[in-house]
């Protein structure tokens, strides 16, 4: 049945029930799920809830974007007592059909690393691995005194400049940090650093009441590890009381070592997968 047949409260219940034994549960409440739908352009008319008679088996959601035309399958889950009966594959095949119907060139999804049954299903349906993505956290606190940081100058900017910087981004974003996702999420700020040795770069981030999130670092000149270290140093010197979480940092991102230098810790990994619909 289309997800529009259910309240957000009922969808939240179904999602949480499908994730009770998940590798990383990530529980939701209705407010958070509605924000998720809004931020990531989830189309409830094309998202579904799998049913057997009057019982919910599971659910799956579909995000759609047009430039280029592509879709994103997310929140896929089947209640534990309803698994091994084909509901997951049936929902995936429906999502693929919906993606073709909207004219998507490709479909993206993410699966938590070591979720073998889900990964096996996606491979069976033709999805191919693209890259590994890391979820990073950093507790509140000033940068460690032992972190070696050369002299630098820093400027901080509001949302308008942050969006302008994002338009110059060279790194390849995931669905979670594509431009529309970041703009939808709001509360964007940016900082730019200039090192005495000529290296420079910028960082766009989301600044909410209690947390920093959605970090997008970019090096304009110099060593990305050093630039990322300085960006992190500047960020957490200014916002030392805030917890930080950033999702979907590519494993091969050259800024990753610099972020780890200033205290970022890996929470878990996702595998980004893609199905080409143009073949």
Keywords:
single chain; 279 residues; alpha+beta; Aminopeptidase; 2 domains; 11-stranded mixed sheet; 8 helices; 11 strands
Describe the SSE topology:
Elements: H1 8-18, H2 30-39, E1 48-52, E2 55-66, E3 69-78, H3 87-101, E4 106-112, H4 116-124, E5 128-138, E6 152-157, H5 159-166, H6 179-185, E7 188-195, E8 200-207, E9 211-221, H7 224-238, E10 243-250, H8 256-261, E11 265-276
Parallel strand pairs: 3-4, 9-10
Antiparallel strand pairs: 1-2, 2-3, 4-11, 5-10, 5-11, 6-7, 7-8, 8-9
Helix pairs in contact: 1-2
Structural overview:
The chain has 2 domains: 3-104, Gcn5-related N-acetyltransferase (GNAT) (Aminopeptidase); 136-269, Aminopeptidase (3-Layer(aba) Sandwich). Helices cover 29% and strands 35% of the residues. The chain has 8 helices and 11 strands. The chain has an 11-stranded mixed β-sheet with strand order 1-2-3-4-11-5-10-9-8-7-6, sandwiched between helices. Strand 7 (188-195) and strand 8 form a beta hairpin. The longest helix is centred in the middle third of the chain and has 15 residues, at 87-101. It is elongated. The model has no long low-confidence stretch (mean pLDDT 95).
Structural class: alpha+beta
Largest sheet: 11 strands, mixed
Element-by-element helix/strand order: HHEEEHEHEEHHEEEHEHE
Radius of gyration over all CA atoms, rounded = 20 Å
Low-pLDDT runs of 5+ residues are none
The CATH class of the largest domain, by name, is Alpha Beta
Shape category: elongated
Distance between the termini: 29 Å
Question: Average pLDDT value?
Answer: 95
Report the CATH topology name of the largest domain.
Aminopeptidase
Strand runs, count: 11
